[in-house]
Predict the 3D structure of the following.
Amino acid sequence: MAGFAALSETLGKLGPSGEERIEGILNDCFGATLRAVAAHGGDVLNFAGDALTAVFPVGPTRDLDGATAAAVAAALQAHQGIDALEAVEGQRLQLRIGIAAGIGARFDVGGVDDRWHHVAAGAVVDDLLVAAHIAKRGETVLTPTAARHVITACQLEPTAQGHARVLEVKPQPTVAPAAPQTPHPQLAAWLRSYTVDEALTSLEKG
């Protein structure tokens, strides 16, 4: 989330009221991004400060081309959602999004003091980080492999590093939300083990 560090520093000088505004801004930004991910059949893997990682899985009705196109469409919607937010203290936040395509691995690691973390790993994750680093404010950048999977679904522009910048996306079908399921009785307790203390404190305060 480009610009968040500078904005946090500005608002942090305002004391408790500034901290509350920071929390509200994060909620607004993540909310817009989460809605975009869900609308295109994605799943958030983890949060890290002002960033998140999402996966768009393949399945019986969606191959890797379709999954990559869904990720690009979600990125476009997320950009639009963030751009629609009002400026704060004269500053606007924008996303820098990287997209990679391929096979990765997911692990649950931890166990010490009942703390756990969900971790994604593999070459595709490394490629994703490179693409996100190349992306500038308001841009979505694809790895070379990801670009090949959406060559007919997007208008792309090559970058100096050999990646591809998304210029335009053809309309993608919206994935119907999954039918609601009854949560497991122990779900809340399990999720606490994956949630950082600061977030738990915020949730408990309402």
The longest strand covers residues 43-48.
